[in-house]
Design brief:
The chain has 231 residues and is an alpha/beta fold. It has a single domain, classed as Rossmann fold. It contains eight helices and six strands; from the N terminus they run βαβαβααβαβαβαα. Helix 2 crosses helix 3.
Length: 231
C-alpha cells in the first residue's frame, strides 16, 4: 500500500481452534483494492494454547505493525484492527481491555478504530461444550467477555452482523454496542437482514461483494476515522 495508507490488521475466525492466514487472502485482496495496507497475522490455536494466549499473540502482532510503520518513517499512519467471529472477539478484547496492549507498551487509544464482523462479544464461553475447553481455567468468565471488560472510552467501533446468524446470535452485537455507548464510546452497528455467519465474511470477497454492502461500511468507517491522532 501507499506510505500513508491506513493499515488494517485482520484477525480471522475459527472458534479459536482452526484457521490460517492463507485462507483469508481474499480479505487482504478486497481491502487492498479499497486502498488499504492489510496485515493478516496467524495466532496460536487450541489445543496448542488456551485463552488468553491467542489474544496476547494478537497484541504482539499489532506491536509488530507499529514497529514496522516506524521503520518507514511515517509513524502517524492510522491503524485499525478488524476480525470475523473469533477474530472479532479478539479484536474487541484488545480494544476494551488495556492489559493486552500494556504488555506491548501500547494503549488501545493508539488505534483509530475497530471493525467487528459477527463477533461473540457477550457470550459465556464456559457455557458451551464447543468452547469450554478453549477457555478452561478461567477464574472469572467475564475476563473473556469483551462486553464485561469495557472500562471507559475505547477507539471507535464498527460492528457488523447478519440478522440470520445461527452460529453467533446478532444479540451479541446489539448488547455490546449498547454497553459501549453507555460508557461514552463511539459505535456504529449495522445488521444485514439477508446475511448469516459466513455470508458476512463472504461479502467482503470481491466476486461476492454485491451480496451486501459490507465493504462500503468498512471503507466509510475507515475514511471517517483515518484522521485520528494515534502515535
Amino acid at each position: 500500500g501507499r506510505q500513508d495508507a491506513p493499515v488494517v490488521v485482520f484477525f480471522y475466525g475459527g472458534s479459536w481452534k482452526s484457521g490460517n492466514r492463507g485462507k483469508y487472502r481474499f480479505v487482504g485482496d478486497a481491502l487492498t483494492n479499497l486502498g488499504y495496507t492489510v496485515v493478516i497475522p496467524d495466532y496460536r490455536l487450541y489445543p496448542q494454547v488456551r485463552f488468553p494466549a491467542f489474544v496476547e499473540d494478537a497484541a504482539l502482532a499489532v506491536r509488530w505493525v507499529y514497529d514496522n510503520i516506524a521503520k518507514t518513517g511515517n509513524s502517524t499512519r492510522p491503524v485499525f484492527i478488524a476480525g470475523h467471529s473469533a477474530g472479532a472477539h479478539i479484536a474487541a478484547l484488545l480494544a476494551v481491555d488495556a492489559s493486552y496492549f500494556e504488555s506491548q507498551s501500547l494503549v488501545p487509544q493508539n488505534l483509530c478504530g475497530v471493525i467487528g464482523l459477527a463477533g461473540p462479544y457477550t457470550f459465556d464461553p464456559l457455557r458451551y461444550p464447543s468452547t469450554r475447553k478453549v477457555f478452561e481455567g478461567l477464574n472469572d468468565r467475564d475476563y473473556a467477555r469483551p462486553s464485561a471488560r469495557i472500562t471507559g472510552v475505547s477507539p471507535p467501533f464498527l460492528l457488523l452482523h447478519g440478522a440470520h446468524d445461527r452460529t453467533v446470535n446478532a444479540a451479541n452485537t446489539l448488547d455490546f454496542a449498547r454497553k459501549l455507548e453507555e460508557k461514552g464510546n463511539t459505535v456504529k452497528k449495522v445488521l444485514f437482514p439477508e446475511l448469516g455467519h459466513y455470508r458476512i465474511i463472504l461479502a467482503v470477497a470481491r466476486p461476492f461483494d454485491d451480496i451486501a454492502p459490507v465493504n462500503n461500511e468498512i471503507s466509510d468507517f475507515i475514511e471517517q476515522h483515518r484522521g485520528c491522532r494515534n502515535s
